Q: What sequence folds into this?
């Protein structure tokens, strides 16, 4: 799982442990628009927009 800045730079990355839920701590990222990207073991990729507001 990774979080990318709106310009495509990866700002946070974490390997999933295969659980139904995972926690990704993003408190250190500044306010802005990001994308959450998940790549499964089968190679399938999903991307969702993510907005951090304070």
A:
């Amino acid at each position: 799982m990774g979080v990318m800045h709106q310009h495509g730079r990866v700002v946070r990355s974490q390997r999933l442990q295969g659980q139904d839920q995972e926690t990704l701590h993003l408190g250190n990222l500044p306010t802005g628009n990001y994308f959450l990207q998940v790549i499964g073991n089968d190679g399938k990729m999903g991307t969702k927009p993510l907005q951090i507001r304070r």
About this structure: Residues 2-52 form one domain. The mean pLDDT is 87.
